[in-house]
Amino acid sequence: MSASPSDAQPVVHAIHENPDWFGPSADAFRERGIPYREWLLTDGGAVDLDEPPPPGVYWSRFSASSHTRGHALAKEHTRAVLAWAAAAGRRVVNGRSALEAEVSKVVQLATLRRHGLEVPRTTAVVGTADLLAAARGLVARTGGPFLTKHNQGGKGLGVARFDDVGAFAAALAAGDVPTPVDGVTLLQEYVPPADGTITRVELVAGELVYAIRADTVHGGFQLCPADACALDPLTGAPLLPPGAQLAPVPGQSLFSLDAEFGTRPGEDALLAGYRAVLAELGVEIAGVEHLRAADGRVLTYDVNTNTNYNAEVEAVAPRSGPGAIADHLGALLRAEVARSAVGHAGVAPPAGR
Ligand SMILES: Nc1ncnc2c1ncn2[C@@H]1O[C@H](COP(=O)(O)OP(=O)(O)O)[C@@H](O)[C@H]1O
Ligand SMILES: [Mg+2]
Questions:
Q1: Of 21, 131, 135, 228, which shows the fewest CB atoms inside 10 Å?
Q2: Which intervals hold domain ATP-grasp (predicted)?
Q3: Which domain holds residue 138?
Q4: 199-249 pLDDT per residue, tens
Q5: Is the pLDDT score of 346 beyond 80?
Q6: Closest CA to ligand 1's atom 15
Q7: Is the pLDDT of residue 6 over 60?
């Protein structure tokens, strides 16, 4: 953690556990002259509850896949810091309720459904004893292939397709179904995207930043950036990612900007639904994923509380994702500074802040 509790200057406190993903945000803060401090919560550490949290705005970009980077304690550490900051009245962006949504596809899907959005039919299985019976039940309802997913997922973790219950039973018997970190596996109907792409809608403070299309034909379930895909050790050619139909083509991006998103029929209602879901989940910065089925239905299946930075899309987008986040956090920081100046002048700050 690079923050020192004695620092009196209000800053944006950026809480995260993956330095590889932070560069674009650091650039956006620096370009705008926004003071910020990184709290890298990776290996544990102390939170002194007897001290007030340093002043400023707290922004969590905790990621559900943190445990895959060896940061198994990051979730509890982030929960502790966010609880401490919120209880002291600090302005927190993507706080504790956002973290609970980030680590639970059950929470995401239930909330999407509550707001009238269509989601793939899904059974959540806690533990392993009921997996096979639940798969039978799902296939009896859907009559088609299904996916396994980890409730606390990200990066396509645990996402595998099964065409029937027999194939799933064989994989279970062979020990080929990995155990999720929280013990909760989702079984979900597999709905092939009609045009081979999924769409990820990036929202900051209720505003659409842009929508990204991702090519699942070449990218599969993990949608790794082309230069990060696994390569064949013998030929050097890209390997077929899990769920892909064709190997990625070197030099050809899996991601593109959907510049029209928001203007086509039905997309206004989809956006309104996403805003309502994010408001309920306390999520101010999000990337929400959906696909369009062959019958025209739009199914939403993933709420990410992080932006998915992509250099090719950023290069052509009318607005920058990290830039939009920095603008939002910078405005909140200015409001905090103004508020504390008023407080120091002897005027009581609003209750609860
Ligand atoms: N129900 C589904 N039917 C077909 N493809 C899906 C479905 N759910 C997810 N996928 C594909 O798998 C990818 C990973 O699934 P997702 O739920 O987004 O998990 P993660 O949190 O790991 O990103 C998606 O981007 C999409 O390409
Ligand atoms: Mg996803």
A1: 228
A2: 109-333
A3: 122-189
A4: 999 999 999 999 999 999 888 888 765 455 667 777 777 778 889 988 888
A5: no
A6: 156
A7: no
